[in-house]
Fold:
Amino acid sequence: MQRILKSIILVILTFSVCLGSVQADDASEPQLVYLPLISNEKYVKPWIGPDGGFVVCMVTSPTDAKTIYAGTWGNGVFKSTDGGLSWIKSSNGLGDLLINSLAIDPQNPKILYAGTYNDEIYKSTNAGETWFHSSQGIQDYAVVYTIAVDPHNPDIIYIGTRGKNAVDPPPWNGIVYRSMNEGINWSPVLENVGGSAQQDWAYDIVVNPKDHCMVFVAMHEYGVFRSLNCGDSWDSMNGNGLTDLSGRALAINPVGADNNAIYFGTWHRTGVYKSANNGDSWTNQYLYSKIYNMDLDPQQPEVLYAADFYAGILKSTNGGITWANIGLSENLLYTVMVNPLQHTQVFVGTAGNGIFRSDQSGSGWVHSQAGLNNANITGFQVHPAQSTNLFTSTSRGGFHLSRNRGESWQQLNNGLTDLDATGVVLHPQNPDQIYLLTISGGLFTCTLPNCQWVQNNIGLPALDLTSSSSFEFFPQNELESEILQSDTTDELVSTKSVSYQTLNDLVFSTSNPAIVYLATNANGVYKSQNGTTSWTQAGLSGKNVQKLAIHSTNSEIVYASVANSATVYTTNNGGANWVASQVPGGSVNDLGISQSQPGLLYAGTNNGLYFRTEGGAWQLLGLSGKVVTALAIHPNQPGLIVAGCFGEVFYTKDGGQTWISGPGDLVGITIKSVSFDSNNVNLAYLGTSTQGVYRLIIK
Structure:
């Protein structure tokens, strides 16, 4: 019976009527044909990982230690029912997948709240199965940083918000709202902190479980505020020992004799302050730490955990008097959570490297993120001789390898001192030799199967950090931009004496693989004539070069695009001189070169896909009005081109005469890379910024 049903479905799909075709008004504009994409049964799973990514917040069910929710940056909410071992997406109904905060009703575990970055707050009444907007009275497009539910009266909820315009200079329109009816309506209860010209915002809110009308708020620049009447009025609790007002995190002792203890974490690197009298006075155990989140063990409230964004997890076992670093310092940390019903279990959400779990109160950290698909893919490759082997580089997650076409992944970062990878490249003659580009560690290489990474940085531009404790933090997505714009004195502390300029692209010459070119963030192009052993500068010094392409038969001819520019540069003498040309489509986001037609160059722009032959003028190939973010030309089928756009993908099999629209489940997703399986003309892979890799079947 199942076989008959499958046959019927296949017949229906095969004979589905085309969704329509559009003929451009301009006769030169190729035809767009919208056809249904029919899945190949062999590749029924479109999203293939790898697991991990940006996890901003977590919350646990008050009645079931194994039910946990995670808020991700770009793929909504995920839910685990097995204590964090595996996750499923739980975002149906969310209008914004950038999740900033989560909270759960302490008396009804089916009721949850999710604060977003662009679309206020959402509510679920069925344990995350579906969500609905619940923002009546909240400012439009509000960023919701924190949610606190009154543990004694869950009808009362507090949220800390700011206006989206906080990416600009103040005023930031920061408002604390309160709902008295489970989020149906909201009213402002604390605003204009710092004055109307500032309007500072709240990063964290806690309700005193011993006195539910006592509420504390941590302000971004203006310290701690307290209400003694459930939010009707507020007082500043600054001074009396509180010398750093850069509020980021709060934690409060829910039980025991020390029931007035409250902890305040700062992001200006003075660490954690403690008050034993509800904020009337403070003491500080100085830590040079940028605290982003805190939690305490509810069964042993002297045990606290603090997430230092740059330097790992800090733990105190004596109520904040002393602290020790207990690991994960190689990651950027965003949140830490103690499972209240299984208090030795601690979870950490990272900026780019998914979720870590400890079942031993902070010892023995392991990844705990199977199925959590939120990776920011910065590069992707398919092994040309073994198509089952896939390779990815990810933002903050380093290098991942799959040996079974994406069914499972292995993270291989041995020797990799910078997990912030920007691209991955295979050697054209030995694809087991892998090269990884990074934000600050330069160029790394390893050889399968062991893959022990070593640096290949001789001659590359370095930043000497021996006299400085910081280097520029280059954001790769909106969350990181948000961090820099919110935390205005941000610096990225390096344990290395030398850091390297960010590397953006690396290309081998197909005619002579000993010749390699490298694009850097601020130092133009570098060239190696010995297969990456050493490097020399090859022009465009001072420019942020993003993409490179090499002529298929002449290694002296190289093309380069720079960030936010419609200019493509060409050198005919290996980088000694460069000539600029303007692409009519605006900013160039990607370059592609034909391997079978020397000199045929493609450019993906903010207004379509352009091409030019050697020495010719730029011409529109198609997709006018589309922002083409990534492109690829099949190495064995020159007429097959895939163009990734914002929220959609198109492909042509006839060199651009006709374009076919891909699947509809890419809406709202940025495609960063397109890669072909060279052995299968019907298969391509799309690397995205928020949901990992998408497997595209071409029909």
About this structure: The first strand starts at residue 20 and ends at 22. Residues 1-41, 466-475, 489-495 have pLDDT under 50 and may be disordered. The first helix runs from residue 2 to 14. The domain at 54-367 is CATH 2.130.10.10 (Methylamine Dehydrogenase; Chain H).
